[in-house]
Amino acid sequence: MQKGLFITLEGIEGAGKSSLMDYISELFTRAGHEVIQTREPGGTDTGEQIRKVLLDSNNSGLESSTELLLMFAARRQHIEEVIRPALALDQIVICDRFTDASYAYQGGGRGIEESRIKTLEDWVQLGLKPSLTLLFDLDVEIGLHRAGRRSQADRFEQEDILLFKRIRSCYLHRANNEPKRFRIIDAGKSLENVKQQTYKVLQKYL
Ligand code: TMP
Hints:
Shape: globular
Order of helices and strands: EHEHHEHHEHHEH
Bound molecules: thymidine-5'-phosphate
Radius of gyration: 16 Å
CATH superfamily: P-loop containing nucleotide triphosphate hydrolases
Structural class: alpha/beta
Low-confidence stretches: none
Helix content: 40-55%
Strand order of the largest sheet: 2-3-1-4-5
CATH architecture: 3-Layer(aba) Sandwich
Number of helices: 8
Distance between the termini: 20 Å
CATH class: Alpha Beta
Number of domains: 1
Largest sheet: 5 strands, parallel
Number of strands: 5
Strand content: 5-15%
């Protein structure tokens, strides 16, 4: 049986996942748990180097399968080096994006067949899955507006709005197909309200 608790945060750009990370972490820490905060792509030295390649807007020619494979290469390292060891120590792992992002961005967004992504998922994860996935859902226009205000656009943020609409619907489709694992949070609300929704979901795990 998988020990610890593996929680992933998902959503389109500007959904506010990163702001909620500290809040969630604090809830678990206050309840006496040991918490690891991490992210994908990234989470290890190698993974962070891969992340640079993936987000670099100079790499505009990156082919979608290359993008997918790099995501899973970083993920494999992350699982072996960080996630599995932490779960084995019964820690709470909170990860900003994981494999649902590959299905949503490279699958729904870029059009790679789901079966290919599933093959990589099975190979790389060997059965590891999040116990809980919080989907921070909001209108694409609002999300991109928020993300645009934050910083200079990376390679993903420069993409067309239609891509993000496909990504959002893929996320929602996955959430509806796996209601036990997913909880949808309305991220269009105020930060205070989003925190309250998040607390309600996490209460029983604290
Ligand atoms: P971030 O901005 O949330 O840190 O994520 C970096 C970008 O990487 C974001 O635009 C989503 C994208 N991404 C994928 O396309 N596929 C994946 O599997 C992951 C983990 C992220």
